Amino acid sequence: MVTKKKNTLESPESGNVDKIREIIFGGQMRDYERRFNELESQIRADLDSLRELWSRQLKSLEDFVKTEVSRLNDRVQADKKDSKESFRKVESDLREAASVTEQSIQELDNRLSAEQRDIRTQIHAQSQSFEEALVQMREALKKDTSRLGDRLESEKVSRQELSGFFTEVAMRLQGEFDLPEG
Hints:
Blueprint: H1 2-89, H2 94-155, H3 159-174
Helix pairs in contact: 1-2
């Protein structure tokens, strides 16, 4: 029978402890949860913004490369066409025209190779720039997260204060702690 009384007494006490815990920490835990949700939303928004920026810059780079390659192809095609037409027009100077055309094609290939190297260099430089921007944004996000974590750490209740509070509550519930009157 003593066991039944003990269980009956423990049930309301444990319910009281849960209620006290909710009263003391409920608001603070909801506030922490809200802050974490806000931080998560901000990080997601920043990442989405970064992805969008990266996508736009990559699209811009692709369009630039396609335009330049197309322009170079058009120039090569035009130069080849001019070379062929000059061959047909000048039968008497066939050997000389062939030599000139060959030199022209070689120069064109050299220019094309040089321009392609320049384009590759520009693409590489822009890629490096994008990577640096990503690193800087990542570092800024890390700093913001760290600063928020430090702020949350400094605002939380210390273990000693919490321990003292629970000890006092337990003593009051057991009737071992009386408040001084007056």
